Structures are given as C-alpha cells and as structure tokens.
Amino acid sequence: MKRIPVPRVVGCLTVCPALYAARLAARLALCLAVCLGALALADLGSGVAAAASPQVETAIKAIKSVGNDPEKLKLFCQLNKLLQEAGDKEDAATQKQIEDLVTKIGSDFGAAWDVGDELDENSPDGQEFYAAVDTIADKCQQ
Fold this sequence. Notes:
This protein has helices at residues 17-44, 54-66, 70-86, 92-105, 107-118, 124-140; strands at residues 8-10, 13-15. The protein is mainly alpha-helical. The protein folds into two domains: 8-44; 54-140, no CATH class. It has a two-stranded antiparallel sheet. A hairpin with a 2-residue loop joins strand 1 and strand 2. Helix 2 packs across helix 5 (107-118), helix 2 packs parallel to helix 6 (124-140) and helix 3 crosses helix 6. The longest helix has 28 residues, at 17-44. It is elongated and about 95 Å long. The termini are far apart.
C-alpha cells in the first residue's frame, strides 16, 4: 500500500508538507532580498558613489585635497567668493582672475575644474562633483 502524506498542523492552518515548504522558501527569499537591498543602500551612502566615472572620481579626489591644505583652501575661498560675485556676468577681467586663481591652486585642481566644467549638474557624475565642491565651499564660511 502506498502511503498518503498526512497534513501537518501549523498554527491554525492545516497544510500539506510541500505547500508549507514552498511558503517557507518564499519567505526566506523575501527576507534575503530585503537584507541585500539594505546592504546595497548602506553601501551607496558611503564615500564616493559608484556611479561616478573614474575620471570624475579622480577630479573629486583632487577637489577634496584642497580642503586639507590651508593655503589652497584660502585660494579656493577667494575663487568661490569671486564666482559668487560674478554670477552669470561675462567679464574678461573676472574670467582672467578666475583662471589665475585656478592656476595658483594647482594643476590637479585645474584639471579637476576642467572636468567639472564639462559635467551636467543634474547627471550622477555632476551631482557627485558639485557635492564635493560644495563641501569645500562650506569650509570657507567657518
């Protein structure tokens, strides 16, 4: 005689073992997906975002290094003030002052600044780059 599986009682539900195993597997898969999602979100919140291209990551590192050098930071603060005062005006004298300050800060900063000029502020790379610039600019007001 062939044996028929006996339903098991789980809580107040009566289910066959195969259905119980399928539900358990589905719950475990959901739990795993939630945990992996949480880890991915935690990773996004640390450091330079993975979305930034290698060229932009290098530029961001150059921008951030300015914040660690008091002399370069002083020059950057002058540059930041000049940029705020200039706004959208196209003035040759102001443009020359900006270029001079960028040159004085250093060649790495100048190359990074050129990368930033080519970025769309709304792109992931642009957002990362300008967030780094804003972080350094915040040090100017301290």
